[in-house]
Amino acid sequence: MSDKSNSKPEYKPVTVEKAIPNTYDLGNLATFDPNPMDNTQLTNKNEQEKEQYITSITRDNVQLLINQLLSLPVKTTTDNVDSTSTGQSSSITLLRLPDSLTILPREKSLPKEKPLTKWQEFAKRKGIKAKEKSGKLVYNEETGEWVPKWGYKGKNKDLDQQWLVEVDEKVKNTEDELIDPRTLKRAERKKLIKKNELQHKRNLKNAANGISK
């Protein structure tokens, strides 16, 4: 009498024969089976038999897809990745997928065009052409390096680094004459940033309300 508890489970073969070969789009992890399905099985009133038939075809197609994937170039990471859950380390094996062949539809709709700002609408009416954008970097002759025009370590902040600063003619004999010009420049930049942010909010509000002035 054989002991069924010690018998090994039966595995399906890894080789699958099809009357018409499948086509593959490995970039999208997809396979396409052109073989016609058995209509009698699909219309079988026995739901269990019908489900088994569909599962069998699905299993064969997945096996064919895996066989194709395993034929792709394989890359194994040299560094081990620590697993916090198991406390063990394991390397990662990666498959290099080719470019996808099937053009899939967009997940989301096309982005809407941004509404014109008041200045853009004015320039459009007057036929004013937009200025060509210049580069973001300028050459600093003192340091011999290319630096940003604005922002962090920007050229516009050169004044902050000067040990000697000339007082602007505009503030002479005014209450601002004794104020450090570097402090004034920083305050002007902050004021300009707030002004631009406020104008941006107004533009968005006007665009949302359909107001054009």
UniProtKB/TrEMBL annotation:
The keyword Nucleus applies. Its main location: nucleus. Pfam families: RRS1. The keyword Nucleus applies. GO terms for cellular component: nucleus. InterPro entries: Ribosom_reg (IPR007023). GO terms for biological process: ribosome biogenesis. Coiled coil: none annotated. It comes from the Eukaryota. It is found in: Nucleus. Keywords: Nucleus, Ribosome biogenesis. Belongs to the RRS1 family. Involved in ribosomal large subunit assembly. This is Ribosome biogenesis regulatory protein. It comes from Candida verbasci.
